[in-house]
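Lecture notes, structural biology module. Today: joint structure prediction for complexes of three components.
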Amino acid sequence: MNATTPLLQVENLSIELPAGLDRKYAVENLSYTLNAGEILCVVGESGSGKSMTANAIMGLLPSYLKPSSGRILLKGRDLLAMSEAELARERGRTVSMIFQEPLSALNPLMTVGDQIAEVMLVHGEGDAASREQRVLELLDYVGLPDPASLRHSYPFRLSGGQRQRVMIAMALALEPAMLIADEPTTALDVTTQAQILDLIRRIQRAKGMGVLFITHDFGVVADIADKVVVMEKGLVVEQGTADEVLNRPKHPYTRRLIAAVPHPDENATRADADGDVLLEVRGLRKTYRSGGGLFTRPRIVKAVDDVSFTLRRGETLGVVGESGSGKSTLGRCILKLTDVDGGQILYRGKDIVPLSQAAFRPLRRHLQMVFQDPFASLNPRQTIGRILTDGPVANGMPLAEAEKKARELLSLVGLDPSAYDRYPHEFSGGQRQRVGIARALALDPELLVADESVSALDVSVQAQVLDLLQDLQKKLNIAVIFITHDLRVAAEVCDKIAVMYRGAIVEFGPPGEVFNAPRHAYTQQLIAAIPGRHWNPRAAVA
Amino acid sequence: MSFFRRYAQNIGALIGLAILAVVVFVALAAPILYPGSPWQGVAEPLLPPFEDPAYPLGTDLLGRDIAAGIAYGARVSLLIGIISTAVAVVIGVAIGALAGFYGGRVDDMLMRFTEFFQTIPAFAMAVVLVAIFSPNITSITLAIAVVSWPPVARLVRGEFLSLRSREFVQAAVVVGQTGPRIMATQILPNAISPIIVTASLMVATAILTESSLSFLGLGDRNMMSWGFMIGAARTMLREAWWLSVFPGLAILITVLAINLIGEGLNDAMNPHLRGRKG
Amino acid sequence: MKTLEFLIQRLVKAVIVVLGVVILNFLLIQLAPGDPASVLAGEAGAGDEQFIAQLRAQFGLDQPVYVQLWSYLQNILSGDLGYSYRNQVPVAQLIMERLPATLLLTGSAFIFSLILGVVLGVLAAYKRGSFGDSLIMTGALIFYATPLFWVALMAVLVFSIHLDLLPPFDMETIGANYTGWARVVDIAHHLVLPTVTLGLFFTAVYTRLTRASMLEVMNLDFVKTARAKGVPKGRIIRRHVLRNAILPVFTFASVQAGQLVGGAVLTETVFAWPGIGRLMFDALMQRDYPVLLGVFLVTAIVVVLVNLVTDLLYRFVDPRIETAR
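The predicted structure, tokenised, for the full assembly:
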């Protein structure tokens, strides 16, 4: 390879979709170039075809998808013209790949050391002893503790971040010239994400690798990209250097995406809500027990540990935390979807903790919930109409009245009334989430618990749903508990923020205060880990 | 794509359906096709097949028409297969639904009970039950049902357990629906396709079990059945092969057809699980 | 170590299951119309009440049910399985004479069907969509639908009557009095047909299960990782897919081990195999209940032991088990 040959050239690549889908190509006429020592981010929303290009490079496309035209040149050699055996020689040696979900990407029945050594084994590299030596070096290099014993661990014993480090070690084993990272931090917590991004950048610099980084998160792009390719529905709409695309986006789609990136207005102050106290939580505790037998002690996890707060009418409380912080359990406790081990939950001054399920049922209509997954939260076998009327009917409303109300609600959440007779699978994620909101509102609740209600949505849709939620809240003067892992989103929509860590609230206050003067070390860590913190998307599209 | 079009894409499933239609027709039309009793000798004994067009499958030691026996046997096989499966599915769904939905101690108890039943060899248990309660169509049907419900219970429990934690079920709790209502209107409709598929395969197994029972002489003495015909012809294997070959083929074809239908239903109901060719 | 705790838990559970089986069958038999005394008396031609009552008292049948159950349980614990009314020998002796034949038959059928089924299933999955795949799956479909006893009869018809290759009856040549190797060969010769006919249905089950499991695992993410590492297809199948796919097959096979005993009743009937399946059936027909109960007890113990051993093996093969529970 001479100095002018780029590491990777994708030229006019088109991949045809099977007939009968809404578009003809998964990706169409795709061209971009990656040089050694560069990080190229391919960014787009779901269905943009961004992962497809990565899989095409590795020859990992499902069998019903075939590139129909174009070339993929790796160091000047066309990968699409190679046989499966030739390709297998390149994989792992010249180009490696890491994936989104590090648990399922590792073989559950093979020790992590064996899985790393296998890369070298199948490429005929070294002997058993030298491979073993290299495995330990690699584990150490990616920052895993105690390589000698970790090497014998099975993947299920490691944390999410550790697993992704193992994947990276595996990818690095033969020092490939190029690394493909397909949403490698999407399944991880923010603080872990920051560490992994840091690691990838550090390795890339040290080894002079070219990295193709697929992501949906502009914050991540701002943190690591040298060059950016923006994709929409299989087409490249804009590409350029990170500075160009992030700070001076030209294409309207890029501008729209960037405008939708949640970004707290740090100077905004909100008037203190002065409504009546609606909900008061005092010393709430919930522990989970697992395992335990004749001779072993059960493992006890304090999911919610002495949590107290008050919530007024019309107020939004953001509960922020990483996975395992207990934030979702807190929401489930308030709705009595799970038992509580101690403390009080006073709804309008009445403790609901001691109530039986049957005694609590009449009160349920006042406390509603919007769920996380727009695909799992609607019964696939019921029409939207049935979904919306089930609640009011269960609470004694005549069916005709419930029907009328459901149709009104559909227009309130911005859906066509014809949706009434259709089934959930006919709607997009954002539309389904609107149905979920309508279902909660059908009972005229006073409190809404929104558990990660926008985190499964693409950014542009996320922004719309957030707007809708805020709008409705003002209109109906309801209190909202907004549970999220994303501090940026919470800061944008909440009056107060509670940061949870290991079951306890470690920081509580208005967003400006939490953001600008975090008191607890964990909050500081969390804020430091926010991707793209130094980039202001508002300024870019102003 | 509609359910029927997906089903029709599977050629094996269509063949199965066609064969089953023929079997059902023969079963229903048996009294018209062969007005006399199938136990009645009608021709000379041990007439080989394909010789006399009036008795295409030959006759047995007592001159009974094999073809008539097979036609009447279809009635018993289908009847017992369907009813015993229905009973087993009702038991299994009830136990599985309660265990899966309520979890905890209820689940523990019901599943121990189910596991216990699975430890006992099913066929041996059926033999004992039928023998003890004297062989007749009711005891045979119930015995088959009693030994076949555990897999249904486990399946339904698994489905209920995973659906119970799904968000749309949680949503139903939050809007104030009661437990039984949630089970009936939210969970069961979503668990029904694997139940239907399992049930269709269970009909096939039940027919096999029934034939095995009557082969051992534990069939209903008043009804002609395929297993009985084979059992009675066993000692004549060397002299008159057709006595056992044709009823056996009848069982094989019927069970095969039902299995094909079951697989077709499975593919049509779970399109995402179907393997892509290639 | 947790394995010890696990073992104790499982042993307790096993004992409860076995006890449950015994009690259930004991109560079931009480429901049967007509008791052994009247059957024996009827056969002896002496129908008079006094003789029957005398027989009842002799066998303890005049006691209340719970007393009979209690004394039966006590006897079992001391190793006494009762006395066969009909054969006039202790039940334990009767079962021990017959058990090896059944263990030989079901054991070889189990191994035969598991090995053949897994091999065929792996082949079908590996060559998926090919002619070989279709052939294997069609075969599996047919044997899955064929009554066991009929396969047995057809095998006798073809291989014994027409081709005269294999013996149709018994476990060894009667009156030949072979010893040593000659006897082993003779038994093996007799074993072929029963093993194959009993095993074919289960082979079909395992073939289908293995293929489905393989295809499922092939779609998992870590297989994609292996491809991305440059692992060749053959090695992916051997090292990554096979191990993950075969665990559910083994689990299923062990749970199903008991079902082989049910099949053995039929196979032993057709082939006049001197095992406990046939013993059970004869005892049932002759209302020789102590024998029946003894057979159920022994089968339950064997099945529970098989499951226990599988669970233990599983813990060594699958590292996730220990923490999963």
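Point to remember: The domain at 3-45+56-277 of chain B is CATH 1.10.3720.10 (MetI-like fold).
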